[in-house]
């Protein structure tokens, strides 16, 4: 347990860091050509992850009464084009993962929510096709370079990390690319919840809605106080209740400047 907690702390510290990487544009660099990158995780709330022990169902459903959110300095404007690399996809979801990931993007692009709020957001999270390019997320949670292409795919991540997103943005805060890596070693996934869901089995759509909200500029809210929002740091196994946005997630998207 000690080792895993240390890992979480290290990952959290990394997630808070803003790292300047070489600009994608060759030649003289102006402030507007600088590229920044931030990585953010979603964690598994399994039984030996004490830091997130409160991650199971809240006693009261606050999905639509809790408007808490946290935002970063970047935003998606217009259309976010993303590609899918299915290499290493777990067999259980290999044929259905793309549809689940696409649904997650649509949820964030339109603002689809659990609270009857207008789905009038004008961003589009557009699937651009398959790609053999790798997500620029290393297994040690380093964001590696910037190829200007947003790729979602599968690979190894540190213990407790379900998925990790690296978002590249310019000095104006506009997202240039955002890559997501989903664990295919430690955790198992479903896209349709099995009747007797148990064990370390996680909902891919919920996880990717969370990751796409990172792409949109959202950060984490309090695990316990905002347990019904999609942007809690960790997810519980078998939970599908947060595929769509809660009131806080929705308010965060508005505040991040997604709505034009
Ligand atoms: Zn996260």
TrEMBL record:
This is Matrixin. It comes from Actinokineospora cianjurensis. The lineage of its organism: Bacteria, Bacillati, Actinomycetota, Actinomycetes, Pseudonocardiales. InterPro entries: MetalloPept_cat_dom_sf. Residues 1-31 form the signal peptide. The keyword Signal applies. Keywords: Signal. GO terms for molecular function: metallopeptidase activity. The keyword Methyltransferase does not apply.
């Amino acid at each position: 347990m000690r080792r895993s907690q240390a890992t979480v702390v290290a990952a959290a510290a990394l997630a808070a860091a803003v790292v300047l990487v070489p600009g994608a544009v060759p030649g003289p660099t102006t402030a507007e050509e600088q590229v920044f990158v931030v990585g953010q995780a979603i964690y598994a709330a399994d039984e030996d992850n004490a830091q997130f022990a409160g991650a199971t169902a809240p006693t009261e459903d606050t999905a639509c009464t809790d408007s808490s959110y946290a935002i970063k300095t970047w935003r998606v404007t217009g259309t976010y084009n993303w590609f899918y690399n299915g290499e290493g996809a777990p067999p259980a979801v290999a044929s259905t993962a793309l549809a689940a990931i696409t649904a997650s993007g649509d949820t964030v692009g339109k603002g689809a929510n659990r609270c009857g709020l207008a789905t009038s957001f004008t961003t589009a999270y557009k699937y651009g096709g398959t790609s053999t390019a790798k997500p620029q997320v290393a297994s040690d949670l380093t964001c590696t370079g910037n190829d200007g292409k947003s790729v979602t795919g599968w690979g190894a991540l540190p213990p407790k990390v379900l998925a990790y997103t690296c978002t590249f943005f310019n000095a104006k805060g506009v997202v240039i690319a955002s890559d997501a890596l989903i664990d295919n070693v430690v955790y198992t996934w479903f896209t349709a919840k099995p009747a007797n869901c148990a064990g370390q089995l996680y909902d891919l759509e919920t996880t990717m809605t969370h990751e796409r909200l990172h792409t949109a500029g959202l950060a984490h809210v309090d695990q316990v106080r905002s347990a019904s929002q999609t942007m809690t740091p960790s997810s519980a196994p078998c939970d599908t209740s947060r595929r769509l946005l809660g009131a806080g997630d929705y308010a965060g998207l508005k505040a991040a400047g997604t709505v034009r």
